[in-house]
Amino acid sequence: MFEQVEKTTDILFTKYIKAIISYEGIHRIETYEYPKEAIREALLNAIAHKDYAYAFPIQISVYDDKLMIWNEGRLPENWTVRKLLQKHSSKPRNPEIANAFFRAGYIEAWGRGTIKIAEQCQKHGLPTPEFKNEGSDFWVIFKKDIFNANDLEKLKLNDRQIKAVLYVKEKGKISNKEYQILNNVLYKTAYRDLEKLVEKTILIKKGEKKGSYYILNR
């Protein structure tokens, strides 16, 4: 069980999850697309909560914009996925496995795993992961931060739109007027550019008419 966690984490972060390289003086800094602690915690949860009555392996899928971890298992009766992001009791499907992880120091506190995953992603500047339970399928879906210049260029956005998305990422929102000032364009150009960003599901429009503004679609 311990080897599953350690070796899977190593493989993911050496082969599948990219690192962004930067430097502070002569020191090389590696920042990964996803926080290692959050991925590790999700693997621990999958192993501790998997329904071992079935022979299906835990499955991990890595895409350009997301990482998905699946295991066979259900939430406790009367629980919803919303409860996972709130303070809750610990009800592991396999208490002996969970207890072994706890005694070995892999689990720091009971009932905080999913909350810790969300906190690590938010600290990393990523959207809150999506937890899905459909029948006996349980998914944790990590979404990558695509709101950077390189990934936005791949979406074939123009320079004005990229500048605006990065502005929203920093400021939280943008209005048509702010877009005009930011890019030195007229109302119609700003409106057209912003609506294209909505069509591409990058931005979400809030409000109506003069009071409308746009936020990131996270």
Give a verbal description of the structure.
The chain has 218 residues and is of the alpha+beta class. It has 2 domains: 2-143, 2-Layer Sandwich (Heat Shock Protein 90); 149-216, Arc Repressor Mutant, subunit A. It contains 8 helices and 8 strands; from the N terminus they run H-E-E-H-E-E-H-H-E-E-H-H-H-H-E-E. It has helices at 2-16, 36-49, 95-103, 113-123, 149-154, 159-171, 176-183, 187-199; strands at 19-24, 27-32, 59-62, 66-72, 130-134, 137-143, 203-206, 213-216. The strands form 3 sheets. The chain has a 4-stranded antiparallel beta sheet, with helices on one face.
Topology:
Layout lengths: L1 H15 L2 E6 L2 E6 L3 H14 L9 E4 L3 E7 L22 H9 L9 H11 L6 E5 L2 E7 L5 H6 L4 H13 L4 H8 L3 H13 L3 E4 L6 E4 L2
Antiparallel strand pairs: 1-2, 3-4, 4-6, 5-6, 7-8
Helix pairs in contact: 1-2, 2-3, 2-4, 7-8
Write a compact overview of the structure shown.
The protein is an alpha+beta fold and about 220 residues long. The chain has 2 domains: about 1-145, 2-Layer Sandwich (Heat Shock Protein 90); about 150-215, Arc Repressor Mutant, subunit A (Orthogonal Bundle). The protein contains 8 helices and 8 strands.
